[in-house]
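Researcher: Here's my situation. A collaborator sent me these components and asked whether they could plausibly form a single complex. I don't have experimental data yet, so a predicted model of the whole assembly would be a useful starting point for our discussion.
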Amino acid sequence: MTVRIITWNVNSIRARESRLEALLRRWTPDIVALQETKIDDDRLPRAAVEALGYDLATFGQGPYNGVAILARTELSGVERGFLADPVPSEPRVLSATAGGLRLVNLYAVNGKAVGDPAYLTKLAWFDALSAWLRSTFDPTEPLLVLGDFNVAPEDEDVHDPETWRGKNLASEPERERVRDLLNWGLVDLLRLQADGPGPFTWWDYRAGAFHRGWGLRLDLALATPPVAARCTAVHVDRDERKPSTGEGKPSDHAPLIVDLD
DNA sequence: ATGTCACTTTACAAGTGA
């Protein structure tokens, strides 16, 4: 039996309602982690999701950020936020258990630009996330940490490493923060299945970046070894980034699909 | 690097965040 999990930064769940429904029909996932829902919990189109057969946990407030988890089985142990979050007013982390699997769904601080105050917040946010994970979980137990990390972990995760060298989303201090999570005991599931360069999961809306192949791999599924051992396939649904694929405009992120045996 | 998108507001354009 396969458990299929998708992570996708939707860039507004309202703007992506039709495409989200099509994605659920296309891949029939068991669990979906969404980021940048950009809506209060009580305004989210809950009935449409439930009508497709999913339980729903949400953590959103205001026009920015926001995360949600969908599951075909009942969600339990829902936890909003994390210990000592340096930006606790921003809903970025939602944890829940589905089918016996503990998930941490995250939308990392973007950072804007190296040197911007937001960049220092980003580094502090990752440090607090790491400390919380280390104090809460044991890497010998099943755990999946997935979402939009807003970091391309290696040069092979960037279309043009020289252009991106030292820039926000690819700078060394950010990459150190991701490596810190891997050093703790998490495994990058896509890299179990595919060598680089690529695939990418995000292309800027501007400058025709998608058409020109100017992408980054910012969306990751990291798992402890007991989960990694069950991973049989990882896909990027690159077609979902195309304007022609569905109704309405695409998100700037493509979904990442993970299969566990 | 920047050919965009989505959100909001003492709103019908402009600022913000990505």
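Model: Some features of this prediction you could bring to your collaborator: The mean pLDDT of chain A is 97. Residues 3-260 of chain A form a domain with the Deoxyribonuclease I; Chain A fold (CATH 3.60.10.10).
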